Known about the structure:
Chain A is α+β, with helices and mostly antiparallel strands and about 150 residues long. Helices cover about 45% and strands about 15% of the residues of chain A. The model of chain B has no long low-confidence stretch (mean pLDDT about 95).
Amino acid sequence: xxxxxxxxxxxxxxxxxxxxxxxxxxxxxxxxxxxxxxxxxxxxxxxxxxxxxxxxxxxxxxxxxxxxxxxxxxxxxxxxxxxxxxxxxxxxxxxxxxxxxxxxxxxxxxxxxxxxxxxxxxxxxxxxxxxxxxxxxxxxxxxxxxxxxxxxxx
Amino acid sequence: xxxxxxxxxxxxxxxxxxxxxxxxxxxxxxxxxxxxxxxxxxxxxxxxxxxxxxxxxxxxxxxxxxxxxxxxxxxxxxxxxxxxxxxxxxxxxxxxxxxxxxxxxxxxxxxxxxxxxxxxxxxxxxxxxxxxxxxxxxxxxxxxxxxxxxxxxxxxxxxxxxxxxxxxxxxxxxxxxxxxxxxxxxxxxxxxxxxxxxxxxxxxxxxxxxxxxxxxxxxxxxxxxxxxxxxxxxxxxxxxxxxxxxxxxxxxxxxxxxxxxxxxxxxxxxxxxxxxxxxxxxxxxxxxxxxxxxxxxxxxxxxxxxxxxxxxxxxxxxxxxxxxxxxxxxxxxxxxxxxxxxxxxxxxxxxxxxxxxxxxxxxxxxxxxxxxxxxxxxxxxxxxxxxxxxxxxxxxxxxxxxxxxxxxxxxxxxxxxxxxxxx
Lengths: 154, 423
Ligand SMILES: Cc1cc2nc3c(=O)[nH]c(=O)nc-3n(C[C@H](O)[C@H](O)[C@H](O)COP(=O)(O)O)c2cc1C
Ligand code: SF4
């Protein structure tokens, strides 16, 4: 079931477009914002709310990389593996995070605190290596800097 | 030297608010365009200025606008492409975060020129700061009567919305972008019909890049001759160039179109970092052909870079140094393209993962000489004309030129059964 809050927010987005289904991506993002990810049940709820078929919503949900169809940890670390970050050594940052947290790309820590995912090019190419945690950007990463930043995400 | 696009951007402070931007002359172009000019006059002015689109393909902006049918009363749309996901590209982010009002002013005029009633900014998901600044600036513009109903008392109405995306590089391809704005999977559409005839929600639509739209107000204020005079080549204007990689001062600089690669690399980026040698560069993002030492004196402009077998693309260069393995470089780039393929066309969906597998094998010392023929053949299949959109041809560009310029490196990987850069 969509919450009243989710419904109000989705309703507001549909106002931007000539018909409700155009707000499908916005709706998925809204649900994910409230729940952390998009479950099968949420896909059906959105479909019903926007007068779409479940399959259409599922097709959209699985197309976009920033819609999570599986649960993620409380904090999502997106480490840039783009070419500019590769040249400047993102791989050693990856190994550092991976060893520290005991997870590889695509995994979540046992305490559900962090999920680690790759992302390509955060548009920070002159200050590489860079990453995002949730909605926050960090660049010119070093091992010490990464350690400090991770501490701030409980 | 004039730097019209970046003169009011100071990376250390927040962007100018509406009042501050108006005090330095911002929105003067909007006043002039809406009060003194007809839509056709604006389109003609932009045509005469020879403004070429800054999204990578260099299509003449005025020509694109002139394809929009103006004789019928129907909904029309202006879309700003702010998806910027091309690896190594970070110029639009700078313009969006640094001066959102410059973009909004340009968009009001562009929308007026095609008589669109609604405008969308399709923004890359990761650009959170840009999103906040844009939303703030748009709210200010509404409050001041520069957006909404009866703009500046002229009777012209325009609504402007920000759509923050949900990832995927292919969203930047303009017809895929339109599908995404409609809430669908971002799959490119067949052309024709072109968006100018049938675009968003099946209505006439113009899609332009951020940097392109940032120019419009300046051109209306200062004229086509002024714009042409800014560049060192035939094409008008300056360009926001950038460099990333092992150089002393990676960054962005607004310089005349036609500035040489050497000047950008050696003067503005300060040359290579101590201990690193130059081997090559991608002139305009990951989907452009490599250039090497002998091309350093080439002028950065669409036609001049095209003449030596590459593309200016987004004008943000990625430098390959002598301590980075070209095979590993290409493996990284092609893996990106393989992951981001929308899966519609066979050479792209099947060819790219094959290319990635081969590059990985070569990098790990398991390459064979016939692999090089397969790679070469794949770049042909992915080339122009075989796919729905330019994603696959873009992916082929660094690979075909890399195979050519770094042939010896490939052979050494294969013969010695290991990557020379790995100990
Ligand atoms: C795979 C692919 C990705 C693209 N990504 C972008 C992008 O992020 N931003 C952009 O402005 N243009 C991008 N383009 C180019 C657009 O299709 C289109 O040409 C451009 O937005 C038109 O604007 P302009 O005429 O102002 O250059 C991309 C093209 C392709 C094939
Ligand atoms: S070239 Fe690739 S990205 Fe473009 S339409 Fe075909 S499969 Fe999709």
